[in-house]
Specification:
This protein is an alpha/beta fold and about 325 residues long. The protein contains 16 helices and nine strands. The chain folds into two domains: about 180 residues, Rossmann fold; about 140 residues, Helicase, Ruva Protein, domain 3 (Orthogonal Bundle).
Length: about 325
């Protein structure tokens, strides 16, 4: 599958999405910090890389840091590097992530999880573009653009004293808010097509797939709490499990069927949800109905009744 972020960033036609890309393109030319905010799964890291790749200057380092993945002491050593003997086990000098990002971009994902002591040091880096390694006294100068991302309420964290207001002020020199997928529903068909094409490129031996118009309609009407990431997972899972490669509406996950489809009656939504659960249970049981009944918490007779009620044998045969 292609790693090009510009491909996915270009997939969209909604006004909210087009305005975001236009603003990001403008910001990319200004070598100052950027704060990207948005719900989980909206593509904040993709947007950060797009800004990096769009900025002038050619090939430059791009370093990604997940702030939630480090303990404070390990984070400091990883971020700023250390001198030999700085702590137990530091047998040699080691450059940190900031030095690796020199001349390019340091992307700090989940910035709200960063410890206060690291926040204070990062603030100095942004202000003065210099720092000291752990255990060292020499000032190391770098030229690094910091892009940070979060799905947390920084306002609440600042009020509680868990996030530095001064750091927020520096990071928010330019602030971008990525719209959730429910605010750009018209982009769903384009994203589905993009994910299907990417899968076929990765697995050319599998014939191309598609979603029926009814399935696309269901996907468009769902609220997608996991946003683009969730849609991608659903598309890939269905594509790789459907031998015909044409996904029908009743094959969609139960939560999508239960919450979507504004033009359908309550009973129609319930029936679609039941069919989806039955299909998933049978798939997990490799077609064994007794095992599927056990997985679904049903008796065998209940499953047989539901199987006949929804005419699954006729649909699948």
């Amino acid at each position: 599958m292609s790693d090009s972020t510009s491909d996915l960033i270009g997939v969209g036609q909604s006004p909210a999405f087009l305005a975001l890309v236009a603003r990001a393109t403008e910001i990319a030319r200004i070598p100052r910090p950027v704060l990207i905010r948005g719900e989980r799964g909206t593509g904040k890291e993709l947007l950060a890389r797009y800004i990096h790749e769009t900025a002038p200057g050619g090939t430059r380092p791009y370093v990604v840091v997940n702030c939630a993945a480090f303990q404070p002491d390990l984070f400091a050593a990883s971020m700023f590097g250390h001198e030999r003997g700085a702590f137990t086990g530091a047998t040699e000098r080691r450059a940190g992530l900031l030095e690796r990002a020199d001349g390019g971009t340091l992307f700090l994902d989940e910035i709200a999880n960063m410890d206060r002591t690291i926040q204070e040091k990062l603030l100095r880096v942004i202000e003065y573009q210099s720092f000291e390694r752990l255990g060292g006294s020499a000032s190391i100068e770098v030229k690094v653009r910091v892009i940070a991302a979060t799905n947390a309420s920084l306002e609440e964290l600042m009020d509680d004293g868990h996030f530095l207001r001064d750091l927020y002020d520096r990071l928010a020199f330019s602030e971008l808010r990525v719209p959730p997928l429910r605010k750009r529903r018209e982009d769903v068909p384009l994203l589905v097509e993009h994910f299907l094409a990417a899968l076929h490129e990765e697995l050319p031996e599998v014939k191309p797939g598609s979603f029926s118009p009814e399935a696309i309609e269901q996907l468009e009407s769902y609220h997608w709490p996991g946003n683009v990431r969730q849609l991608k997972n659903v598309v890939e899972r269905l594509y790789l499990s459907d031998e015909d490669r044409v996904i029908q509406a009743d094959e969609l996950p139960g939560d999508v069927l239960a919450a979507s489809g504004p033009g359908k009656t309550f009973s129609e939504k319930v029936a679609a949800f039941e069919r989806s659960l039955l299909r998933q249970g049978l798939e997990q049981a490799s077609g064994n109905q007794r095992k599927a009944a056990e997985l679904l918490g049903m008796s065998y007779d209940q499953l047989r009744h539901a199987y006949r009620k929804h005419r699954l044998g006729e649909q699948d045969g």
